[in-house]
Design a protein that fits this description.
Layout (H helix, E strand, L loop, with lengths): L10 E10 L2 E11 L4 E5 L6 H8 L7 E6 L2 E2 L4 H7 E4 L11 H11 L5 H11 L15 H12 L6 E5 L7 H16 L3 E6 L2 H7 L2 E6 L2 E6 L1 H5 L5 E3 L2 E3 L3 H9 L11
Helix pairs in contact: 3-4, 5-6
């Protein structure tokens, strides 16, 4: 069956499989991300999240299946895919020796953005980094470094941003800062694919949540739809909805081992 034409900002993954020697990491992954939405890919370490991100960003070829970003196939049109998206990894990819402003100017020049100075001023203000712009990035807090990293990823106006476990290692305040930034990006129309192992992060941010377990999507839906999979518990006649954590553990079990350490 032929896939429908994809609109700007959409992502479609169909039947993706990937193995590393004898270890099968992805076993037929299917999902679609609608334009302007936040889609959370939730899974334990080793579930295959990072492998899938590398395929979507054209850094890795799948063994089977197809992946499209903005209607461009990751295998037949990788350059078009790279023009359409920006990837922010688990750790902020900033140069600690350069100032915040210099980091942004460097990326703007590499992407041949006209009048980079005006764009950099706009991004520093947008991400509340104007006062810190003249300081070396190595002096930034975790939340500031991550905000700078995301600001760098926006240069070139990508319609899709992939955030691969963006709050790993951050303290609660820094995580909150990143969450606010993600919400603002989505509100402005940017499509966001968020991978995380933090259940509360998916619960707070995502329009839809897919649970990846042992290389396959075992559930995909809104938070309300996932909660509806478990019956509500009652305590003294007060109905209590199941939390996302209870849904996740009920679906994947307490043993999330995948038999390998590839992610």
């Amino acid at each position: 069956m032929k896939s429908p034409t994809l609109t700007a900002g959409s992502i479609e993954v169909v039947g993706i499989e990937k193995s590393f020697k004898d270890l099968q990491v992805l076993r037929g992954v299917d999902f679609r991300v609608e334009p302007g939405s936040i889609f959370a890919l939730l899974g334990s370490n080793g579930a295959g999240k990072t492998t899938l991100v590398r395929i979507l960003s054209t850094l890795l070829r799948p063994d089977e299946g197809t992946a499209q970003v903005n209607g461009f196939d990751t295998q037949s049109a990788p350059a078009k895919v790279r023009e359409s998206l920006s990837l922010t990894g688990q750790f902020a990819a900033v140069d600690e020796v350069l100032t915040g402003r210099e980091n942004l100017v460097l990326i703007a020049k590499l992407r041949r953005v006209p009048n980079p100075g005006a764009l950099v001023d706009e991004l520093l203000e947008r991400f509340s980094l104007t006062e810190a712009g003249a300081r070396r990035a190595g002096t930034y807090s975790g939340g500031m470094r991550r905000r700078l990293d995301i600001a760098m990823s926006l240069i070139g106006n990508p319609s899709v941003i992939i955030l691969d476990e963006p709050t790993t290692g951050l303290d609660p305040q820094a995580r909150s800062e990143v969450w606010d930034t993600v919400r603002e990006l989505a509100a402005a129309g940017t499509t966001i694919l968020l991978t995380t192992q933090y259940l509360d992060e998916a619960e707070q941010l995502a329009d839809r949540i897919a649970i990846l377990h042992q290389g396959v999507i075992i559930q995909n839906g809104t938070l309300a739809e996932l909660k509806a999979l478990l019956p509500p518990s009652t305590v003294e006649y007060v109905e209590k909805e199941p939390s996302l954590e209870e849904v996740f553990l009920a679906l994947v079990g307490t043993d999330s081992s995948t038999g390998g350490n590839k992610s």
